[in-house]
Amino acid sequence: MRMNDQSHRPQLAVAATIAQDLRSVVSKLKRRLREQADVGDMTPAQVSVLLRLEKDGPMTTSSLARAEGMRPQSMGAIIAALDAAGLVRGTADPNDGRQTILSITEACRRWIEEGRAARQDWLSRAIETRLSSEEQDHLLSAVKLLQRLADD
Question: Would you call 46 exposed, middle or buried from its count of C-beta atoms within 10 A (0-12, 13-18, 19+)?
Fold first, then answer.
């Protein structure tokens, strides 16, 4: 074994420990953020569909199913529940009358925005009240590093 390989091992161990701790912390933070938004009786799949429609815009049931990695029949059941709750609406596809284009309703858009605002407010308050100014500066530096990792 070359000397360079031996000196590299401790760095790999440190990186592995950081990666494990980071995954754990990110998961816990995601859980805490989810708790801040009232999703009521909605399933994670229903929330995911609403967020996809909000982000990607109107889609057909089959394109939504492909994007979410599920069968069209399963997506149909999700859409039926969201439609009954008044969160999505369907309009005839102008190019193919057999297809329905789904989009979120204004009520759904408000619900998404309120959820984001609640999560932002919770996180801002937690940072402000639980971290010193110096710790906030460290967190800002860490966020920049995490952004670099995420952008690769």
Answer: buried
Fold of 44-105: Arc Repressor Mutant, subunit A (1.10.10)
> In whole angstroms, what is the distance from residue 112 CA to residue 115 CA?
5
Is the pTM higher than 0.70? The answer reads yes
Tokens read off for 111: 């619900």
Residue 41 phi/psi, 5-degree rounding, is -95, 10
- Residue with structure tokens 């005839």? 92
Sequence-separated (6 or more) residues with CB below 8 Å from residue 33: 119, 122, 123
The pLDDT-based confidence of 12 (bands split at 50, 70, 90) is confident
What are the respective helix, strand and coil percentages of the chain, to the nearest 5?
Answer: 75, 10, 20
Which residues fall within 8 angstroms of residue 10, CB to CB, at 6 or more apart? Answer: none
Residue 99 and residue 93 in contact, taking contact as beta carbons nearer than 8 Å: yes
